[in-house]
Amino acid sequence: MSVDPKKWGVIYNPKAGTRKVKKRWKEIKQFMDAQGVSYDYVQSEGFGSVERLAGILANNGYQTIVVVGGDGALNDAINGIMNSEAPNKEKIAIGIIPNGIGNDFAKYWDIGMDYKKAVKCIIDHRTRRVDVGYCTYYDGEKHHKRYFLNAVNIGFGARIVKVTDGTKRFWGVKFLSYVAAFFLLFFERNLYRMHLKINGEHIRGRIMTVCVGNSTGYGQTPSAVPYNGWLDVSVIYRPELLQTMRGLWLLVQGRILNHKLVKGYRTKKVKVFRARNAAIDLDGRILPKHFPIEIGILPEKTNIIIPR
C-alpha cells in the first residue's frame, strides 16, 4: 500500500482517560478537519493495540505517525515502529498530541496540553533526531527487546505504576488512582535488594528506587537530554520520613540530585543482575521481571516533531 507522504496516520488511544478525554478527541478531530489536515485515523482497542496499529501504519508507508495519548501510548507506538518491517522506519516522524495525565516526554519539548498548538506544531513539521533507549532480557525461551523514550523505573517508581493500574478500575479516574497509589506506598517505602553495574562499578545493596532516564523521568533524572547519546541514572537509597519529604520537594523543584541519598550517574549502558521483588516499568508500561536485564541507548534513532 502506498500513501501520500504528507498524510498523517493518527492513533487515538481512548484508554488514556475518561469521558472528558473522549470529548477532547472529538474536538481535536474537528480542529484537524478545520485546518485541512490530510489524515487517516485508527482507534486502539485495548492493551497492546497501539503497538500493533503503529506497526501497521509504518508498514503501510505513513511518514508521519501521530499519537493522541500519554507516555504509555507513545511507548507502545515507538515499539510498534521500531519492530515494524518498514524500510524507512528511522525516518518516520512521530507527532504527539498529549492526552491524559502522563505526558512527561511531551512536557520536555514544551508540547503543552493545548491540542490546537500541538496540531499546528505537527503541521509545521519541525523534526529533531532523538535517542531511543532499549531494555533487553531473556525469559528462558526467547530474547526480548523493548524500547523507551522517557525512562525505566525499578522499585518504588514502578510500584506506583503497578498499583495505579490496579486501582484505576475502582476510582474510575486515572489521576485519583495515581494519587491514591502514591499515598498508599508513601509510608511503605520498601527497599529492594539490587545488584547493578554502571560504568564498570558494581552497586549492591538495599535500594528504594532506580530511574534510568533518556529524558527527565518525571523529575528523577532532571539533567537527562534525549539527544546526547547518554543515559542518566538516579539511584535512591532509603530516606527517613523527613528526608522523604525534602526529597519530594527537591523532585518538584527539579533538584532531586541534590539530595544526599540520591546518587547520579551518566552512562551508555546499565546491567541489572538482580532487583529482588521489584517492579519494572518502561514509560509507564510494566515489564515482565526476568533478570538479568540490560538497558542501553541507540543515539538519534528516530524523529520527533517539536515546536519551534
Topology:
Layout: E1 8-12, H1 19-34, E2 39-43, H2 49-59, E3 64-69, H3 71-82, E4 93-98, H4 104-108, H5 115-124, E5 127-138, E6 143-148, E7 151-155, H6 156-171, H7 174-186, E8 192-198, E9 201-213, E10 231-237, H8 241-253, E11 262-267, E12 269-275, E13 280-282, E14 285-286, E15 293-305
Parallel strand pairs: 1-2, 1-3, 3-4, 4-15
Antiparallel strand pairs: 5-6, 5-15, 7-9, 7-13, 8-9, 8-12, 9-10, 10-11, 12-15, 13-14
Helix pairs in contact: 2-3, 6-7
Indicate the proportion of strand residues.
25-35%
Percent of residues in helices: 25-40%
Order of helices and strands, N to C? EHEHEHEHHEEEHHEEEHEEEEE
Q: Uncertain regions: pLDDT < 50 for 5+ in a row?
A: 167-178
- Spatial separation of the terminal alpha carbons: 33 Å
* Shape summary: globular
Q: What is the structural class? A: alpha+beta
How many β-strands, per DSSP?
15
- Average predicted local confidence, pLDDT: 86
Q: What is the domain tally?
A: 2
The CATH topology label of the largest domain is Tumour Suppressor Smad4
Task: State the assembly state of the protein chains.
Answer: single chain
CATH class designation of the largest domain: Mainly Beta
Which CATH architecture of the largest domain is right? Sandwich
Question: Radius of gyration, Cα only, in angstroms?
Answer: 19 Å
Please tally the helical runs, counting DSSP H or I stretches of 4 or more residues. Answer: 8
Main sheet: strands, sense, barrel: 15 strands, mixed
